[in-house]
Specification:
It contains 4 helices and 5 strands; from the N terminus they run H-H-E-E-E-E-E-H-H. By secondary structure, the protein is of the alpha+beta class. The chain has a single domain (about 5-100), classed as Zinc finger, CHC2-typedomain (DNA Primase, Chain A), CATH 3.90.580.10. A 5-stranded antiparallel β-sheet has the order 1-2-3-4-5. Helix 3 (about 70-80) packs across helix 4 (about 80-95). It is globular. Bound molecules: zinc ion.
């Protein structure tokens, strides 16, 4: 059984953030020694204000304040519900690793948001 932290670990090792955020437009600007990437926010369209991290499954817009983990991004950007967002990530993680997914409660993610 794999929980979401395991899924995130697998995906981070694959630089999944570059795939997840690949359809965002705008100039990509690296900051914090390359750990942070700034790009145009898909929600408020502000250039170079949407930030995602190389080491953690988090993102945030410094203009409109939207942010969260990758599940929250899939929910907001793709219109998925929580369960489908977890399954989306699990499917992409599973391309290299086989496991069963257990669905955790949303409360398990409190504390991920905004932790830079
Ligand atoms: Zn924004």
């Amino acid at each position: 059984m794999a929980d979401i932290q395991t899924i995130y670990s697998i995906l981070l090792a694959k630089s999944y953030q570059e795939q997840l955020f690949s359809d965002l437009i705008g100039i990509r600007k690296r900051e914090a020694g390359g750990r942070e990437t700034l790009v145009t926010c898909p929600f408020c369209q502000k250039e170079r204000h949407f930030s995602y991290n190389r080491d953690k499954p988090v993102w945030k817009c410094w203009h409109c304040g939207e942010g969260g983990d990758w599940i929250a991004y899939l929910q907001k950007a793709k219109g998925l519900d929580f369960k489908d967002a977890v399954l989306w990530l699990a499917r992409d993680a599973r391309s290299t690793t086989r496991f069963e997914v257990s669905l955790p409660s949303r409360s398990a993610f409190v504390g991920v948001d905004g932790d830079r």
